[in-house]
Amino acid sequence: KAGVTQTPRYLIKTRGQQVTLSCSPISGHRSVSWYQQTPGQGLQFLFEYFSETQRNKGNFPGRFSGRQFSNSRSEMNVSTLELGDSALYLCASSTGESSGNTIYFGEGSWLTVV
Amino acid sequence: SQQGEEDPQALSIQEGENATMNCSYKTSINNLQWYRQNSGRGLVHLILIRSNEREKHSGRLRVTLDTSKKSSSLLITASRAADTASYFCATDHGNNRLAFGKGNQVVVIP
């Protein structure tokens, strides 16, 4: 069974640009969540989707958005990039039908904003 | 949301020794999950322990949970060089939303 797959693994963007990151969850998983990891702030929750609906949202500005498709694949978008958005963005998936499920993470997408 | 807090932050041990990490949290949880992260990589799930469980084992890993003290510990027995990584605890307060601690850096010296 394939794990959580994230693309691209590495990317460099310029301030002001926008970026879209993609995540394919484990087959059968309907919950996809996104996290940002930085040296200063650690791992922070961005948002979680279940069956194409956003169920939870963290404390990030509106420049951070996401969506989930009918096949459970998810994308997150960051607009008007700032230097502080440089981070490892991690996608995670679980069955999501109730709390208490194991949450599996992908390898992440390294974003550098210059 | 409350974050788990691991203690200590960094640990350096000899191969074969045991390593213990602690995690505390502030509000009630549904479950607590431990993860390992190798440098520059994603998070690898180690163990999930539910709020009604006190101890779980997986291979060389032992996790305890004390809900009265709002704390958890991760023990790695007979450590190996390959165990060198950062270890995170994450609390689930519901809705598949994890709150992470700052992590423990473990270095196992061959």
Share of residues in strands of chain A:
over 45%
Name the structural class of chain B.
mainly beta
Distance between the termini of chain A: 37 Å
Number of DSSP helical runs of chain B: 0
Uncertain parts of chain A? none
Q: Oligomer, anyone? A: heterodimer
**Tally of DSSP helical segments of chain A:** 0
Radius of gyration of chain B: 13 Å
Tell me the series of helices and strands of chain A, N- to C-terminal. Answer: EEEEEEEEEEE
**Largest binding interface between chains:** A-B, 30 and 27 residues
Strand content of chain B: over 45%
Can you tell me the residue ranges of chain B where pLDDT is under 50 for at least 5 consecutive residues? none
Helix content, binned percent of chain B: under 10%
User: What helical percentage do the residues of chain A reach?
Assistant: under 10%
Write the layout of secondary structure elements.
The complex is a heterodimer of chains A (114) and B (110).
Chain A (H helix, E strand, L loop, with lengths): L4 E3 L2 E4 L5 E6 L6 E8 L3 E9 L2 E5 L6 E5 L5 E5 L8 E8 L9 E2 L3 E5 L1
Parallel strand pairs in A: 2-11
Antiparallel strand pairs in A: 1-3, 3-8, 4-5, 4-9, 5-6, 7-8, 9-10, 9-11
Chain B lengths: L4 E3 L2 E5 L4 E6 L6 E7 L5 E8 L4 E4 L2 E6 L4 E6 L8 E8 L5 E3 L3 E6 L1
Parallel strand pairs in B: 2-11
Antiparallel strand pairs in B: 1-3, 3-8, 4-5, 4-9, 6-7, 7-8, 9-10, 9-11
How is this structure best described in words?
The complex is a heterodimer of chains A (114) and B (110). Chain A has 114 residues and is an all-beta fold. Chain A contains no helices and eleven strands. In chain A, a hairpin with a 2-residue loop joins strand 5 and strand 6. Chain A is globular. The model of chain B has no long low-confidence stretch (mean pLDDT 90). In chain B, strands 2, 4, 5, 9, 10 and 11 form a six-stranded mixed beta sheet that branches. The relative contact order of chain B is 0.35. Chain B is globular, with a radius of gyration of 13 Å. Chain B is mainly β. In chain B, a hairpin with a 5-residue loop joins strand 9 and strand 10. Helix content of chain B is 0%, strand content 56%. The chains are: A mainly beta (114), B mainly beta (110). Chains A and B meet through strand 4, strand 5, strand 9 and strand 10 of A and strand 4, strand 5, strand 9 and strand 10 of B.
